[in-house]
Amino acid sequence: MSSAANALRLLMLLEHQQSLRVVDASRALNVAGSTAHRLLTCLKDEGFLRQPAGSRAYVAGPNILKLARHFSDQNSLERVAHIHLERLCKQVNEAVNLQVLVGHEVLCLDAVVEDRHGLQVRSIRGQRVSASVSAAGKVLLAALKPTELEEALSQDPRHPDAEWSATLHAELATIREFGYATNMGEREPGVHAVAVPINDPAGKSIAALAVAAPSVRLPHVRVSGLITHLRAAGSAIALDYYSSD
């Protein structure tokens, strides 16, 4: 655990300086030079640091830059989408949220909760949950390539359960066919949700847009109407997001 903490501390040093030498790492962590060298080499081997040709210093590697771009993209998507979430919330008079896939879970980037009902769904902004019990999660899982899907599901604690896996794969096939997913109390009893993907110009799903409501206000018969609103809002978000590049 201390090695992991020290490795993270080294990466944080790049916030204030462009490169790291073994002596810099040794001083910052108060460890021997050999220990600092092993940590730097490990981070280099994992792609979080690299050494420019002819240099003994270490700089940010491809994996840390990839993470930075990923979270920067998420933040800009959240900013672009927020006004559309507010508009959609007013249209359907229910809670709406924007979610992205992170491994076998979905992360809620943004949520807007309606305030005109006594019975409300709470905001889930910033929360992560298993994708297989979330409408947004299922619609994003369904968009993955087979190898990507298996990699994501292999991280789920229920993956060894053959019956669970078969049931989920069958549901994902239906989601691919119809282009939306539902969650009828799977994530939280008494709460229903419906979600559609937000796609990039090439048709790849980058996020999901969902409406959530107490089950008494979101029966099956209401799903088709909500899908129309969700798809319109999702298309508007994608249009604004990619035209702002």
Question: Could you explain the architecture of this structure?
Answer:
With 245 residues, the protein is an alpha+beta fold. The protein folds into two domains: 2-60, Arc Repressor Mutant, subunit A (Orthogonal Bundle); 70-243, GAF domain (Beta-Lactamase), CATH 3.30.450.40. It has eight helices and eight strands; from the N terminus they run H-H-H-E-E-H-E-E-E-H-H-H-E-E-E-H. Strand 3 (95-102) and strand 4 (105-112) form a beta hairpin. The chain is elongated and about 65 Å long.
Give the topology, please.
Layout: H1 2-13, H2 22-29, H3 33-45, E1 49-50, E2 59-60, H4 62-92, E3 95-102, E4 105-112, E5 128-130, H5 135-141, H6 146-153, H7 162-178, E6 181-184, E7 191-199, E8 205-214, H8 223-243
Antiparallel strand pairs: 1-2, 3-4, 3-8, 4-5, 6-7, 7-8
Helix pairs in contact: 2-3, 4-8
Strand order, biggest sheet?
5-4-3-8-7-6
Estimate the global geometry from the Cα principal axes: elongated
Rg calculated over all Cα atoms: 22 Å
State the CATH class of the largest domain.
Answer: Alpha Beta
The number of helical elements comes to 8
In the CATH hierarchy, the architecture of the largest domain is: 2-Layer Sandwich
Backbone structural class:
alpha+beta
Total of domains: 2
Give helix % range.
40-55%
The topology string of helices and strands comes to HHHEEHEEEHHHEEEH
Q: Span from first to last CA?
A: 40 Å
CATH superfamily of the largest domain: GAF domain
Q: Segments where pLDDT lies below 50 for 5+ residues?
A: none
